[in-house]
Amino acid sequence: MSRVKRGVTSHAKHKKVFKAAKGYFGRRKNTIRTAKQAVEKAGQYAFRDRKRKKRTFRALWIQRLNAAVRPFELNYSRFIDGLSKSGITVDRKVLSDLAINEPAAFQAIVEKAKAALAA
């Protein structure tokens, strides 16, 4: 049986890891052992934070909505209650965007929510 030289395969694997570790500080970018660990940990953070990003943005939209409805003598929870009672089904992302970019449209929605709360 002939001998198998594995240099080409190892080099290709290492190259892939080093490419992923580009921009890291110190030995993390150019030593295979530490680079491999760093890339694996970065992958774990990336996986976790793809999930966390959704939570973070929802929290941001809620804060923006709370700030946007305060001038109309409402708070966030009363506003959402009014929306559900009036039958308006617009998600928080769109509401937040409306509050920033289309204040007149947002005001109309707030007035409908207030009317539903009063009734």
TrEMBL record:
GO terms for cellular component: ribosome. Keywords: Ribonucleoprotein, Ribosomal protein, RNA-binding, rRNA-binding. Pfam families: Ribosomal_L20. PROSITE patterns: RIBOSOMAL_L20. Gene3D superfamilies: 6.10.160.10, Ribosomal protein L20. The keyword RNA-binding applies. InterPro entries: Ribosomal_bL20 (IPR005813), RIBOSOMAL_L20_CS (IPR049946), Ribosomal_protein_bL20_C (IPR035566). Binds directly to 23S ribosomal RNA and is necessary for the in vitro assembly process of the 50S ribosomal subunit. It is not involved in the protein synthesizing functions of that subunit. NCBIfam families: rplT_bact. HAMAP family: Ribosomal_bL20 (MF_00382). Belongs to the bacterial ribosomal protein bL20 family. This is Large ribosomal subunit protein bL20. It comes from Bradyrhizobium ontarionense. The gene is rplT.
